[in-house]
Amino acid sequence: MSGPALGSLDLAALLCSRVCHDLISPAGAIVNGLEVLEESKDEETKLFALDLIRKSARTASARLQFCRIAFGAAGSAGAEIDVGDAEKVARGFIEDDKVKLAWNLPRLLLPKNKVKLLLNLLLIAAQAIPRGGQLTVDPAGEGAGMGFRITATGVNARVPPAQALFNGSGAVQAIDAHTIQPYYTGLLAQECGLTVALAAEGENIVVSAR
Fold it and tell me: By CB atoms within 10 Å of each CB, which of 72, 82, 97, 186 scores lowest?
């Protein structure tokens, strides 16, 4: 990876910060819901609080499952992960009222770093459609050498400012909990022997690793 390298301790700390950022919102909503439940005597308000707790707990669980594979060890060195499991956690994390996921990958076992790369590419592609839309995941190649192509389609789709970080060309001091994820994606791609590309194709934004 060209450009300045981020130390392993800083990389670990920033990835932990990124995971905490994803979990703070649903965890805080659960706490708020419990407080409302304890203080309220109105039945309708209690039902609202229970619904908030239920939805927030599901969100927190989905994000934890996604982050476990996308950022965590997810098995021993050399382990392989079922692409179907990656689809399941991706749908739980990404799909909502605004964003839909079309998954066209075959179900097979891939090295864990390649699956981690796939999930991180999805995060970057999702940033391209801030107003919602569809992410379409297609294979690039086949078998053990398969890469990925993710097309982001939505109103005012835009290229997220991640390209420089794929190649480690951003200044180290500019890498924080918000920018660590594309930087980490570049590290994963390098480990897999793939190159990440991010570009507009007509009105769509395409993120690929080949």
Answer: 97
Under 8 Å between Cβ of 86 and 119: yes
Measured between alpha carbons, how far apart are the two ends of the chain, in Å? Answer: 16
Cα–Cα distance between 107 and 58 in angstroms, integer?
Answer: 25
138 pairs with which residues across the strands? 149
Rounded distance between C-alpha atoms, residue 53 and residue 133, angstroms: 27
C-alpha neighbours within 13 Å on the C-beta side of residue 180 = 20
pLDDT band at 152 (very low <50, low <70, confident <90, very high): very high
Please, which residues have CB within 8 angstroms of residue 176's CB and are 6 or more apart in sequence?
Answer: 14, 17
Q: Which domains does the chain possess?
A: 8-209 (3.30.565.10)
Q: What pTM, to 2 d.p., does this model score?
A: 0.89
Which residue carries 């290229």 as its tokens? 159
Q: Residue 193, Cα to own-chain centre: how many angstroms?
A: 20
